[in-house]
Amino acid sequence: MLKHSIFLRIYAGLVILVAVVAILAYLLVQIINYQRAQEYRESLTDGMAYIISEGIARQQNEQQKKDWISDASDLLELPIYYVQADKVDLSRAELRRIKERKAAVRYNAENMIAYIILGMKDDPNHYLYIKADKITERQMKALPIFVLDYLVYYPGQEKEYLAKIQQHFSYPVNIKNIQELPLDSEQIGRLRLDHSIILYRDNATVRGTTISIVSPMPNSPSEVLVLGPVPLFNWMPFQLAAGITLLSMFMLSLGVYGLILPMQRKIRQVNYALNRTKSGDLNMRLPVDGTDEMASLASSYNSMSDHIQRLIEAQRELMRAVSHELRTPVARIRFGMEMLAEEDDYEYRLQQVEMIDKDIEALNTLIDEIMTYAKLEQGMPSLEIEKIVLVEVLEQVATETEALKTQKDIQLLAPPVTLEVEAERRYLHRVVQNLVGNAVRYCDHKVLISGGINEQGMAYVCVEDDGPGIPEQDRERVFEAFARLDDSRTRASGGYGLGLSIVSRIAYWFGGKIEVDQSPNLGGARFMMVWPAKRFSKARKKAAAEKEKTTDSLT
């Protein structure tokens, strides 16, 4: 049966869907991070590409340029090649970056080597080609030297020219007072010795860990050049994680909708068929496709429709039969009565009386059979027993009653909020509602509602009023349908109708009982329903059913 379960197919589909979405999300993260990493590498080299390009442009001739490049290679401990532009095959994106005086970076993930291509300011025929297989602390400390070499041509205007070239850097480049930085004595001592230092900072923000390179300024012992803070590459920033999560949820939602759509379509068919049935059309039938739960529901609906049609047809047949059977004995009785009126023979009159008596007995038998049939068709209600906080039901009815503005004093003697009983909420609410409604109708001023569990472990609800009460000889009759009591209570209000009879039946279905006596506190009537506080066992349900059959047979 499991392999035919629509829910098992949905669950399996969800597992597969989650796996597929997870794989797609992983691949998407990898693709996005590849592009982000490339942009990160390029952003780190753009500023230095501009500074190096400016430094080479200041050289007077080609030999001086080559010497400057050689010194830069030794300083960075990286091979730097001065190559002709036509020997380097660049893509459109790389050409555009070089024209914008930025760096083109090619990264080989297998060898973990970056190839950096820099353009010349006044020499479009040559490129700088740098091979960076590793980035060490020595190389990072060498970067401020290129910036200082650029600023040496602008004595006294260092800060102004740093502000001009800031647009080429993706991280801050500033000249600060050494006292503004959170440095210890050892770091300050190294700066005094003209050594650059690297600062690592862990931030509790989305920037994460950052690096700053601090280098002393020539001829200014109180000022330093600060490159950074430069954030380290974050493989899973908040924005990316949030975007991938939202996209994954959207894809999962679409997948779940696709999985549930067939079942939704079948449920819509069932709902349409039920509406047709409600309108009186019993000829609607559902297609039975497959062997899953929806197919079983369609089959059950078809069987139910067939059964209802059979019942209706049987009812029609019964009505026709009853009509026929009633007419026959009634006609014979009428004929017998006419014969009695016209016949003087005593023996013949006795014979007609005997025939009339048989017809009356036949009528009684027919009525008994009809009543038995109706009871068998009615059956017992299906109760959905659950644990209920009793005070919630009592408070609900009290609130609903006060909302009617009956001008009566409704008081609630509330049980503990932790007290739970087992019953069907809808029927229990109906019981309290009917009892309170009757109490409000017949009380003078005050109604008291209470509930709980008695000493025998039975749950109870109690409603009292300060009205005239019910005479003891009539207390059993008030639970009969359409009962009318010949007293002031009945004359004032029209008497009890079906409300208390419904309460009586619900109490019976709950396995309990309903009683009425005189209220010891208010003096009027006190209605109290008791029932088992624990869940009904199958044996108890069976016993209740047998008890009902026995009671019906006696009545």
TrEMBL record:
It is a multi-pass membrane protein. The gene is bfmS. Keywords: ATP-binding, Cell membrane, Kinase, Membrane, Nucleotide-binding, Phosphoprotein, Transferase, Transmembrane, Transmembrane helix. SUPFAM superfamilies: ATPase domain of HSP90 chaperone/DNA topoisomerase II/histidine kinase, HAMP domain-like, Homodimeric domain of signal transducing histidine kinase. Its main location: membrane. Residues 261-313 form the HAMP domain. This is histidine kinase. It is found in: Cell membrane. It holds the Pfam family HisKA. Coiled coil: none annotated. The chain crosses the membrane at residues 6-29, 240-260. PANTHER family: SENSOR PROTEIN CREC (PTHR44936), SENSOR PROTEIN RSTB (PTHR44936:SF10). Residues 321-535 form the Histidine kinase domain. One of its GO terms (molecular function) is kinase activity. Its EC number is 2.7.13.3. It comes from the Bacteria.
